[in-house]
Write a structure and sequence with these properties.
18 helices; 447 residues; alpha+beta
């Protein structure tokens, strides 16, 4: 336990060093889950401060698409002013996950705005007839003078009118000189009152987005990655739970069904899917998601054996991290020792070969920090399908180390299949909460 915590803290120190020289958007985003969880688990506020600095910088930057929502995938400058003009499904899903968690732990309004805008971009612009989502959208020729993502003050005024257009251009650094070639990418880097954007600007941005959609030169990549779709499922599920938003829950359940259908002929993306299913269980408490996650990892890849000493790719590093998170959740939910054993194998890979892993693997180290602390779990046994008020209160608090399960008359049979240990907790006339700390069950609450 102590060794795990020590290793996790060394990893956090490594993130601090990385931030001083690595300004790559994906690298920095990959480190944020570890910083947020590190601050929670260790009580060290500087990790939280570093995470908030990056979350704030991304929101203000040109990497954030201030017109259409979501985030571009990269930038070539340290200020993140000039973006790649490519918006990928996986990047927006990951950032939606991060901003949702940040809002849950801090309730800064722009955290929620960032998460919802990223999700809404994916839902609006990347959806396919199959129920799955395409890989992304980009400028066909990013270097063209008429790059569709760039604006001029004249173009803004043409849509919003002279006075509103002038104020909007001043707010978002849109100038005649341009900040990105001959045009300007909207950003808030020079706006010291960035957190007080005037009322009515949401309508302005939507009008400009509609105009931008009519421009030539924006290409949609309709290729499908099941792993990236699973990341979106996880982000939708987390947003549904944290924001208590049934729209996102409905979208998550629809995507879950589409992923299940696709998995019948394509077994790729199992780790990401298993992780997403554990997030979806936390949102709707449907035990079938636990069973499906377990089935997805019934014969998981063995990362160390597959790589044969070679450097990991970003995609395989991400798979390793998601595998660690999924196995950690499955062990806590089911109490099946096989998941703890496999979790240990993945954590050993993460630590023994840390020099070969890139930033994409950092999220998996959250499991190291979690494993170093006493496990916390709460089973709510409710006599009806209506969620008890106390459960709603528990779910509204930021507690990444707490696993919550719900047993009701409707789901009891399926839950006993997925998590057999829940059988021994009977129903009562009122909701009863059974807390567990490090394998030891405390006195029930509610009897």
């Amino acid at each position: 336990m102590d060794q795990d915590l020590s290793w996790g803290e060394r990893a956090l120190a490594g993130v601090e060093r990385m931030r001083e020289k690595d300004f790559d958007v994906r690298s920095r985003a990959s480190s944020l889950p570890l910083l947020l969880r590190g601050a929670y688990y260790t009580g060290e506020t500087k990790w939280r401060v570093m995470a908030e600095e990056d979350l704030r910088a991304l929101w203000r930057s040109g990497v954030h698409d201030h017109i259409g929502g979501g985030f571009f995938s990269a930038s070539g400058d340290r200020e993140w002013l000039r973006p790649s003009f490519e918006k990928r499904l996986d990047d927006n899903a990951v950032l939606a996950l991060l901003y949702t968690e940040a809002w849950e732990s801090g309730h800064m309004p722009f955290y929620r705005d960032a998460a919802e805008e990223a999700l809404d971009f994916c839902l609006r612009e990347l959806s396919l007839p199959s129920g799955l989502f395409g890989a992304g959208r980009c400028a066909a020729d990013p270097g063209a003078e008429d790059n569709p993502f760039l604006f001029t003050p004249a173009a803004i005024a043409e849509t919003l009118g002279e006075e509103d257009g002038r104020h909007f251009a001043e707010c978002y650094d849109i100038t005649d000189e341009g900040n990105c070639g001959r045009g300007s990418i909207p950003n808030l880097l020079l706006n010291e009152r960035w957190h007080l954007v005037p009322p009515g600007y949401d309508d302005f941005r939507e009008r400009l987005r509609t105009v931008r959609e009519q421009r030539a030169g924006i290409v949609t990549d309709t290729r499908v990655s099941l792993s990236w779709n699973a990341l979106l499922l996880a982000a939708l599920a987390r947003a549904a739970r944290v924001f208590d938003d049934r729209r996102y829950l409905s979208e998550a359940e629809t995507l879950c069904a589409a992923l299940a259908a696709a998995a019948e002929t394509d077994s790729s993306g199992r780790a990401a899917t298993a992780f997403a299913l554990t997030e979806l269980y936390a949102a709707d408490f449907d035990p079938s998601h636990i069973a499906a996650a377990a089935a997805a990892l019934s014969s998981p890849p063995r990362p160390a054996a597959e790589r044969k000493g070679t450097a990991f790719s970003a995609e395989s590093d991400r798979t390793l991290a998601l595998l660690a998170l999924a196995l950690d959740a499955l062990f806590s939910l089911t109490e099946d020792e096989i998941w703890r054993t496999r979790r240990g194998e993945v954590l050993r890979e993460l630590t023994l070969h840390a020099d070969r892993h890139g930033p994409e693997s950092l999220a998996g180290l959250c499991v190291l920090l979690s494993a170093a602390r006493p496990e916390r779990k709460l089973l709510c046994v409710a006599p009806s399908e209506e969620r008890p008020e106390m459960l709603k209160g528990v779910l509204s608090r930021y507690s990444p180390d707490l696993r919550v399960l719900l047993k009701t008359p409707q789901n009891a049979a399926a839950l006993s299949e997925a998590a057999p240990w829940t059988v021994r907790f009977p129903f009562a006339e009122r909701p009863v909460f059974h807390p567990c700390a490090d394998g030891v069950w405390g006195e029930p609450i509610g009897l």
